[in-house]
Write a structure and sequence with these properties.
Layout (H helix, E strand, L loop, with lengths): L1 E6 L13 H9 L8 E3 L3 H14 L6 E2 L4 H6 L2 H14 L5 E6 L1 H6 L3 H15 L6 E5 L8 H16 L10 E4 L5 H13 L4 E3 L24 H6 L5 E4 L6 H11 L3 E3 L6 H15 L5 H22 L3 E6 L1 H13 L3 E7 L10 H9 L3 E6 L3 H8 L8 E4 L4 H7 L3 E3 L17 H23 L10
Parallel strand pairs: 1-12, 2-3, 2-4, 4-5, 6-7, 6-8, 8-9, 10-11, 10-13, 11-12, 13-14
Helix pairs in contact: 1-2, 1-7, 4-6, 7-10, 12-17
Length: about 450
């Protein structure tokens, strides 16, 4: 019994579970108000990412492209950058931030992004003397890392460009939740309100669950403002909930402006949520209110109702973003499930040294495998292996055909999830998220039992 932490043996990727770095950078960019990311690459680098966002959220997002073609590949795409920046500035008078996101093509060409931004800044100053537009260099070559690294890089670059001075002390917390759904953000904001803690969330994507307002306008944009980013340097502390999607920015604020950085476990499940609330209480001196203690108790009762009778010893395969997968594996242990396969889909060598994975290996009294730089073909291969025996899959919608072909129940978590309605609206973090996720798992298992006529008589005892 034990845990093997390995990297897939194949050099190629078959059915990737992640998108590329520019995709993650674009997601971070659209979390800023009055911001349109400009992707320096072919049109497909923008179009297919926008399609993913539209599939997941059922909403449209503004992302621009420099639209590189053959001539740019030979002579360089300098003019495409300058034309793109100036076109956006002229067309959108309220525009304040343009993350200039590189791709594999523009990185291979070797375009001088920073040099072109200097030229663009001069052109912007001449054309709009009374207006400040921040053009942010975001280096995200597609041939390394993934959407996870791209999100982190864009977040860090935006703060480095805009948050350049020590702000007046605000007493607020900077919260970096990572790549989360609006439902998780709404839940986290509620928790801090109930603790009477003032905080700013980066990036604030609450309105990605787009409200249709009485004036018939539809607001689908990030809530994070330029002023929020500037004020982050005067915060009481930064709390990063995602080691691979927000910690680098929190650490940057710490090193540059002495804003204390706290990296906590992503709050999936009871213990991780406890740790988050305790850390916030420790930083601010605010007690954890009775309302959250009661919510914790309700969640524990709900989990107890399901764990021993329906979840015990179920063998689970998980795939997706590393903070999500590791956090859900810890949650599985809480509800008596056995996470036997964890698939992490890019080439980040830090995963193998992640203390949370090392802690999991000590708790497992069964064979558990963690595969780095994995793809969905690794999941398919193990699903077909009778010695592995998977009872449940947790992951995003791109794994649906593996689940269908293997006749294994699957619960959708992570990005993108597009073949179930409204998942982005429901939290998976916190006490509320733990309860709702456990109930979703249970109902998925129940439906699968009925469909396969497999021990469905057990449900009569419910």
């Amino acid at each position: 019994m034990g845990c093997d932490i390995t990297t897939k043996e194949r050099a190629g990727v078959i059915n990737p579970m992640y998108d590329c770095q520019p995709a993650g950078a674009q997601y971070a960019g659209i979390g800023v108000k009055d911001c349109i990311p400009l992707v320096h690459g072919g049109q497909g680098c923008t179009m297919f990412v926008r399609l993913l966002f539209a599939q997941h959220f059922k909403e449209n997002f503004d992302i621009a492209s420099t639209s590189l073609h053959e001539d740019s590949a030979v002579f360089g795409g300098h003019q495409r950058i300058r034309d793109g920046v100036m076109t956006l500035a002229r067309r959108y008078p309220a525009l304040r931030v343009i993350p200039l996101i590189t791709t594999c093509s523009s990185e291979v060409i070797g375009d001088d992004v920073e040099g072109n931004i200097n030229v663009c800044n001069k052109m912007l100053k001449e054309a709009f003397p009374d207006r400040k537009v921040y053009v942010v260099p975001v280096h995200t070559p597609s041939f390394k890392s993934s959407q996870v690294g791209g999100y982190s890089e864009c977040l860090r670059a935006i703060f480095k460009t805009i948050a350049t001075r020590k702000a007046t002390a605000t007493g607020k917390l900077n919260i970096f939740p990572g790549w989360v759904n609006p439902g998780d953000l709404v839940m986290l904001k509620r928790y801090l309100r109930e603790m009477d803690v003032d905080a700013t969330f980066f990036m604030d994507t609450q309105d990605f669950d787009s409200p249709v307002l009485p004036d018939k306008s539809i607001h689908t944009h990030g809530r994070t403002t330029v002023e929020d980013i500037m004020a982050s340097t005067g915060a009481r502390a930064s709390v990063a909930l995602a080691r691979y999607e927000g910690a680098s920015t929190a650490e940057q604020l710490s090193s540059d402006f002495e804003v204390p950085a706290h990296i906590v476990a992503t709050p999936y499940g009871i213990a991780n949520t406890d740790a988050l609330l305790q850390k916030i209480s420790e930083i601010t001196g605010r007690p954890i209110p009775d309302s959250l203690i009661t919510e914790r108790g309700v969640a524990i009762d709900a989990l107890q109702d399901l764990a021993h009778m329906f979840f015990a010893d179920k063998r689970v395969a998980l795939f997706g973003h590393p903070d999500l997968v590791i956090g859900l594996a810890e949650f599985c242990l809480e509800i008596e499930m056995k996470p036997v396969l964890l698939l992490l889909g890019d080439d980040n060598s830090k995963y193998k040294r992640d203390p949370r994975i090392l802690a999991l290996t000590k708790k497992a009294d069964w064979d558990m495998e963690v595969i780095c730089n994995a793809d969905l073909w690794e999941l398919e291969k193990r699903v077909k292996d009778p010695d592995t025996k998977i009872d449940l899959i947790l992951g995003h919608s791109k794994g649906r055909y593996v689940a269908i072909d293997g006749n294994i129940p699957m619960v959708r978590v992570g990005f993108p999830s597009f073949d179930r309605a409204g998942l982005y609206r429901h939290p998976t973090m916190g006490y509320q998220g733990a309860m709702e996720l456990a109930e979703n798992i249970a109902n998925t298992l129940f439906a699968h039992m009925e469909f396969n006529r497999n021990k469905e008589w057990i449900l009569n005892t419910w």
